Amino acid sequence: MYCHHLRLHNFRAYRELVLDLPPGLCVFLGPNAAGKTSLLEAMHLVATTKSPRTTNDAELICWGETVARAEAAFRSREGRTLRLAVGLQKTAGEALTKRLEVNGEVVAGAREVVSLAPVVMFGPDDLSLVKAGPGERRRFLNTALAQLQPRYLDDLVRYRRALRQRNELLKGLREGGCDFAAVQPWTEQLVRSGAALALDRKRFVADVGRHARELHAAIGGGEELTLTYRSDLAEADGQQQAEELFRARLDHLADLEARRGVTLVGPHRDELVVTLGGFPVRTFGSQGQQRTAALSLKLAQARVTQEWTREPPLLLLDDCLSELDATRARAVLKLEEELDGVVVTSAKLDPALAERTDAARFHVGEGEVRSS
Amino acid sequence: MLRYPRPLQRVIEELERLPGIGPKSAQRLAFALLKRNPADVRALGEALVALPEAVTRCQECFNYAEGELCAVCADPGRDRRLLCVVAEPADAMAIERANDYRGLYHILGGLLSPLDGIGPDDLTIAQLVDRVSRLQPAEVILATSPSVEGDATAEYLRQVLAAAGISNITRPALGLPVGAELDYADQVTLVRALQGRRAM
């Protein structure tokens, strides 16, 4: 998959932009705050329905405007073209409407978009992938798996809903408001969707772990990188077994849950443990080690996407090569050979970028993008 | 400052209280009423005034009715050994429109949802149990929606009905839209339909 056409209207600093991109490696060069990241952000937004930078979509609309639009055309390895668009409109009050389009037709929700054009992005903020709490790594698993398996997002939405409903009842139970029998139907919903999530995550982590270790070695991480899926349901194989295990774990903690008033077992407590040479990177890693580990995870996600879907994802690398020495940066760019599209932003033409004379270079500044 | 005459303002305020009607729609509707033939407006008014008393709840199934029983419960030609449980009257109406089902209905009046404070006592579940013990139906169909709340409500009913001695409890299949090409089915529907496959 690569992005061959991008069209922006009132998106961040871009009033109007029409840009055609070739397959292979594309490099956006320009000073800080020139609008390089916004270009990657737009591609990420249309493909995943979410900005990688903000959860407040109103920020994406050009200052003083009420309507914004981002549209991108992707070409798959088989040569099929896919046009995705996101339209944003501020309405009365603070409300914002978001319209998702696939090939010119409006679709109902993210569920119908996220698995169409796989995109993997790595930027400066992604350090939090290894540095922040477990929630950040669950988010990584959720975003990746939603792209890989249309069913995953449905299970996730159902799981979260069942969890909230069940917790509400447990809270009432603690306050003596109802009996435990009322909890059981929600437990059943929780168990079904939760077991499916855990199995998907387990399979994904096994594959990502294998590639991350290899890629980490290639981009110069000295110690061995390992990923471990830590879950209440980690040892289960198959839907039925996972459901049975989940039910047994919940049964076992029923009294404690009733006292605490909250669900104590399940995928919402999962952790993805990242270690370097046997030590958790989160607490023991240096800034540099953490960055290389996080980058390895994202690059591994790209490989797994290719393996599972037979479609190489579009890889977006935001301002991350300057932090690496030339050898490592070269190793990262080498991944382009396996993919159809890699888009890189950088403030300066680092040696590893300069020697890639096959790359299409663009200069970015003052709301314009010029080919060079 | 210009204000609408009080009778007009009152209509706008009353309309605004309806679901899905904001201030602008309320205004537009009120103006439309003003422009209409007075006889039409009076007819609408009379229909509205009669509504709360003319429409009752069926004493058997809790669907809307005129009088004690709804049209389905009052119909001697319906199969009393078949009972279909739905959340709202609109769900029963949807099944009726398909003109295939010949059994009775039971309207729950909603779905279980602790977050909205809706528990078993807020639905017509006790009445359902009472009804099945009287009717002794050969089959009870739990036709709540396949949402988390609909599934949980069905699961709760399954337990309650099993405890009441009902052995044949069914749930409608999740499936592909009839006549649609497999190619075009949305992927989640396709996966769920495959998960619910059955032997031929």
Describe the protein's architecture and organization.
The complex is a heterodimer of chains A (372) and B (200). With 372 residues, chain A is of the alpha/beta class. Chain A is built from eleven helices and 15 strands. Chain A has helices spanning 36-48, 128-131, 134-148, 150-174, 184-218, 239-252, 254-260, 281-284, 287-309, 326-333, 351-354; strands spanning 2-11, 14-20, 24-29, 67-75, 81-90, 96-102, 105-107, 119-122, 225-230, 271-276, 279-280, 314-318, 341-346, 360-365, 368-371. In chain A, β5 and β6 (96-102) form a beta hairpin. The model of chain A has no long low-confidence stretch (mean pLDDT 92). Chain B has eight helices and six strands; from the N terminus they run αααββαβαβαβαβα. The mean pLDDT of chain B is 91. Chain B has 200 residues and is of the alpha/beta class. Chain B has helices at 6-16, 23-35, 38-54, 71-74, 89-98, 125-135, 148-163, 187-195; strands at residues 56-57, 64-65, 79-86, 103-107, 139-142, 169-170. Chain B has two domains: 6-54, Helicase, Ruva Protein, domain 3 (Orthogonal Bundle); 72-199, Dna Topoisomerase Vi A Subunit, Chain: A, domain 2, CATH 3.40.1360.10. At the A-B interface, α4 and α5 of A face α7 and α8 of B.
Biggest sheet descriptor of chain B: 4 strands, parallel
CATH topology of the largest domain in chain B: Dna Topoisomerase Vi A Subunit, Chain: A, domain 2
CATH topology term of the largest domain in chain A: Glutathione S-transferase Yfyf (Class Pi), Chain A, domain 2
Rg of chain B (CA only) = 22 Å
Order of helices and strands of chain A: EEEHEEEEEHHHHEHHEEHHEHEHEE
Strand line-up in the sheet with most strands of chain B: 4-3-5-6
- Tally the helices of chain B: 8
Looking at how many chains there are and whether they match, the oligomeric state comes to heterodimer
Distance between the first and last residues' Cα of chain A: 24 Å
The count of DSSP E runs of length 2 or more, i.e. the number of strands of chain A, is 15
Could you give the order of strands across the largest sheet of chain A? 2-1-4-5-6-7
- Would you identify the regions of chain A where 5 or more consecutive residues have pLDDT less than 50? none
Residues in helices of chain B, as a percent range: 40-55%
Instruction: Identify the biggest protein-protein contact and residues per side.
Output: A-B, 24 and 19 residues
Give the number of domains of chain B.
Answer: 2
